[in-house]
């Protein structure tokens, strides 16, 4: 009789364990709050709690809340419900991040032959750079997951990038050239001089002009010089490379392979390029129009290197501009909206009307990329949702950055029942060009207008930091559904973007 009783208890225990093993993690049944005296006694001991339910009960016990307390059931149910919601949110976030990782269209082109050629060229360059980098450090390159930088990834405003990881080499700089500055054996000098406000375009254009100047020097093996009070320094130091110490000039020269001059008198003896172009607006226009003759993959590699250098030195309200003005915080937009929360998921929309020229400019990009000639100007709710809904991002904050020229864009988004509850605007006291750039660069998804150089710099920076997920080139297919017409790297492609590349 006793043996039969023991057998029955053993069978019951096995059934209990099997049932609990089959229940999903975090499953909380109404009966889960019922315990006998032995259960309470066990929990008062030193046995470690393994399930979420057990941890909640132990927390209550530690606070002196026992089953005989009239509030015990209320508190237990409330905490279990809160735990369920937290677990559900964590699972949702993991699924969203997994979806984002698996939906990148870096090299996508409508021409499959062109896409295959780019991917093959990229793979060859990546392996070459892995080998070169490994040889410099005496590492074994047979491991594809090699930690090339031997350090953690670079973080910007507390959010991680892919810089400093193996994925950092996905697009990357050519290590064979990284140790040699252009023009080392040349007396020719491309000199950035003159001051604003008479420049060719606004900040987006000016950033393109600086990147093109760096590229011109590399392509033509000439030295790049910058006058310390020029437009280039004034624009750049407001966002990057603020002056913090007496070695700032040396650090800047080393970082960008340039020479800094305090006055034009110091450039005597150099063979100046374009000496007859003395008008700053005309000179910056020529820089803007420059198109490198490099293969796209090689061109991206150089541009990525320059952009990564900028973001390694982003301003955080410490230091001054070259002219002595205090700098602002590039993290101001992120901090204003999300505080110190580092893992928040969010998307950014950049809407730009382009002073009435938007249709013409976007029409030109549309001709070569296949994107819709109007959609990125108007940012209609169905266009935005076609991107965010499949990624699960309609459940997370949606930040709008706009030039404010077309109020109807904001009004349409506010009238949409799916977008409006999540729509955010950066507070007026925290919004400025640098803060908006970083906010968009560090977003999980970015939706922009490819005809805007401001959008272009953001998309290039996202690619340089390893993100992708920039949705600029989209059109409706024959079934009336929105789809990508060109991948993330199209923003660098001169066949599509011309001078804006």
Task: State which percent range the strand residues make up.
Answer: 5-15%
- Helix content range: 40-55%
Estimated structural class = alpha/beta
- Major sheet details: 5 strands, parallel
Distance between the termini: 87 Å
- Low-confidence runs (pLDDT<50, min 5 residues)? 14-46, 139-151
Strand line-up across the major sheet: 9-8-7-10-11
The 3D shape can be described as globular
What is the helix tally?
19
- The counted number of beta strands is 13
The radius of gyration over CA amounts to 28 Å
Description of the structure:
- It is a single chain.
- The protein has helices at 2-22, 37-43, 52-62, 72-101, 112-137, 175-178, 203-220, 231-237, 248-256, 280-289, 296-311, 332-338, 358-369, 375-378, 381-391, 407-415, 433-441, 453-464, 494-497, and strands spanning 155-156, 159-160, 188-192, 223-227, 259-261, 271-272, 347-351, 398-402, 423-424, 445-447, 470-471, 474-476, 482-484.
- α7 (203-220) packs across α18 (453-464) and α17 packs across α18.
- It is globular.
- Mean pLDDT is 81; it is low at 14-46 and 139-151.
- A 5-stranded parallel β-sheet has the order 9-8-7-10-11, sandwiched between helices. A 4-stranded parallel β-sheet has the order 5-4-3-6. It has a two-stranded antiparallel ribbon with strand order 1-2.
- It is an alpha/beta fold and 501 residues long.
- The N and C termini lie far apart (87 Å).
- The longest helix is centred in the N-terminal third of the chain and has 30 residues, at 72-101.
- Helices cover 45% and strands 8% of the residues.
